[in-house]
Amino acid sequence: MNNESPLMLSVSGMRGLVGQSLTPPVAARFAAAFGSWLRQSISGRSPHVVLGRDSRPSGQMFEMAAASGLIAAGCRVTRLGVLSTPGVAIMAGHHQADGGMVITASHNPIIWNGIKALRHDGAAPPADQARQIIERFKSDDIDYLGVDALQPCEEDMTGVQVHLNRILPHVDVDSIRAAKLKAVVDSVNGAGGEEARALLENLGVELIHMYPEPTGLFPHTPEPTRENLTELCDKVKQHGAAIGFAQDPDADRLAVVDEQGVYIGEEYTLALSAMHLLGSGDKVVTNLSTSRMVDDIAEKAGASVLRTPVGEANVASVMTQQQAALGGEGNGGVIWPKVCGVRDSLVGMALMLEMLAKRDLPLSGLVKQTPAYAIVKDKAAVSQSLLDQIGEKLKEKYIDQKLDTQDGMRVDWPDRWVHVRPSNTEPIIRIIAEAAQEEQAQSLVNEVRSVLGLA
User: Which of 21, 68, 106, 317 is flagged as catalytic?
Assistant: First the structure.
């Protein structure tokens, strides 16, 4: 596979360019590899796998290919149609399935698609299991079965209601209804529009819904970052809403806009959820690229923070081991184990709305109660030879600082940090820095670029 047409295989699953690195035969083989791995893991019986997809135009094609691969490996498949990634995860538990699969490329542009595998508990396979699945795919180590062992393919289109039923018992619906809140939601024509609408209707929240149709034709770059959400910010001000929400195409990430139309960012989704939920003795798990806001909030609540390599599966794995109360990532992903084991934008919405209903402050006031940092996120395409030298170059430069090599290299000072790592989902490196002031964070990013010869 050449660099112009990469097929990304990682703990986050598989992603590729539609019609180039990712074709129906590739999708079918990856699904069959997952099905074969599942079958071996459960001692040879026929695994049950739920299968959903986001709204991309290529999604139905890859859904059919993946269903074929799963069936060929002896799996019984239940197709869920267009559904958010957390919705698929919850349906895995609802059906007591052995695994799940989502056809999605998350926030990547429309030219990409991919496949994300889920375990029976709805969580993504941790790194060691992900490697086993990838090795089966690469080596074509697949158990294709004869006609006598083939299982049926079924459908269940109740995922929206099942998702709602998992969230509503865990939030104070009466308080949220009594608060008579108004929210603007940008669903980016992705998979989460119907679930978002149903949730807010059930919570009695007045909804102004932008791009709710699951066409997969994204009206703007779908990653929920500041530069892509100017229209959402304007709509919040225009309608006098209490809050604005932005989902990504598979609705596992959530960015937030305050009542003044100010983008407060993805980092605040987990931070505010932590402020709302954490108590003494609780544990929260997040990755090495997530803001220190979480550490400060946890310390104030008497809770503790555990850090993992980037990748939802890594966070979820440690959450399970440590019985954490909350987890997530600074990309707007909140994992609340009471609901499911993956990031869930609907969970983020419900917690933010409950927080607004229960505290006598607007969202901007709640943000002022959180410790303020500036975070700068950069990325760069690099050669494989430079990728292999990153750790060595950074260690040489920062040998006197606190270094964490779990995932690339994170360098910590008392008042700032920088994290450099290869992306799980794109052929790039990510450089993320945080400090008290944006200029300081940008200076760290520039310094790292200079060390690596990228300036």
Answer: 106
